Amino acid sequence: KQEVTQIPAALSVPEGENLVLNCSFTDSAIYNLQWFRQDPGKGLTSLLLIQSSQREQTSGRLNASLDKSSGRSTLYIAASQPGDSATYLCAVKGDDKIIFGKGTRLHILP
Amino acid sequence: DTGVSQDPRHKITKRGQNVTFRCDPISEHNRLYWYRQTLGQGPEFLTYFQNEAQLEKSRLLSDRFSAERPKGSFSTLEIQRTEQGDSAMYLCASSAQGGNSPLHFGNGTRLTVT
After folding, report:
1. Cβ contact (<8 Å) for B93 and A91?
2. Among partner residues B41, B45, B107, which is closest to A97 by beta-carbon distance?
3. A70 in helix, strand or coil?
4. What is the tens place of the pLDDT at every residue in B50-86?
5. Nearest C-alpha neighbor of A91 from the set B109, B42, B25, B66
6. Whole-angstrom distance, CA of residue B103 vs CA of residue B92
7. How far, in Å, CA of A8 to CA of A24, rounded?
8. Is A64 left (phi over 0), alpha (psi -120 to 50) or beta?
9. Which of B16, B17, B93, B101 gets the most CB atoms within 10 Å of its CB?
10. CA-CA distance, B65 to A54, in Å (whole number)?
């Protein structure tokens, strides 16, 4: 049974700092891993999708890496801004089921 | 393409009542997923459709829950005899076919059972 863990559960950093969010999964037989952002009371917004054959994906200030063999992914946010404050979730797709972690609540201090 | 839409955005109901939620996926997406999310938790998988066929159901989906996608387009999720423990955000997502198609979410329906 696939389990997805995100560490830390919450993180506060001053504006302008670079930061890394972590995601680990127990079953390496995945098709892809997707990072999402969720603002309070809202649905999820897709940030990056990494296919199982890829090592990383970049979009603007975001960079996501995937090490399938060790069951780990990281989301790197460069030059953080207050608008980056949100909950960040990772989700892994194996067969047809997509399993989520509990998320990391990120607070960027102005 | 207006994205995934869910209706209603909020629903308050009394315990024991039935409620029905609707999800309209992105038009060309043949896969549709329902998730439930409670405060501080990640979304939990409930069920999944490919076109009109319901291919998988979580054990979280008790016999009070039923989901349909009759024409392979919109989907409904019904909860019968609601309980306070059903209070949560119900999220719908869709994707195109293919193992590497990204998942697109709606804004969810927040259910409060009093």
Report:
1. no
2. B45
3. helix
4. 999 999 888 888 899 999 999 889 999 999 999 999 9
5. B42
6. 10
7. 11
8. beta
9. B93
10. 38
Tokens of B105: 């979410």
Q: What does residue A83 show for φ and ψ, rounded to 5 degrees? A: -70, -10
Q: What percent of chain B has pLDDT over 90?
A: 79
List b or e across B38-51, with b for residues whose CB sees 16 or more CB atoms inside 10 angstroms: eeeebbbbbbbbee
The gap between the terminal CA atoms of chain A, to the nearest Å, is: 41
B88 pairs with which residues across the strands? B111
Contact A96 B106 (CB under 8 A): no
Three-state DSSP state, A2: coil
* CB spacing of A97 vs B48 below 8 angstroms: yes
CA distance B12 to chain A (A): 15
Q: Which residue of B has its CA nearest to A47?
A: B102
pLDDT tens digits, A14-66 = 999 999 999 999 999 999 999 999 998 888 999 999 999 999 999 999 999 99
User: Do A90 and A5 meet the contact criterion of CB atoms below 8 Å apart?
Assistant: no
Q: What share of chain B is helix, strand, coil (3-state, %, to 5)?
A: 5, 50, 50
Mean pLDDT of A81-90: 97
| A80 φ/ψ angles, rounded to the nearest 5 degrees | -60, 150
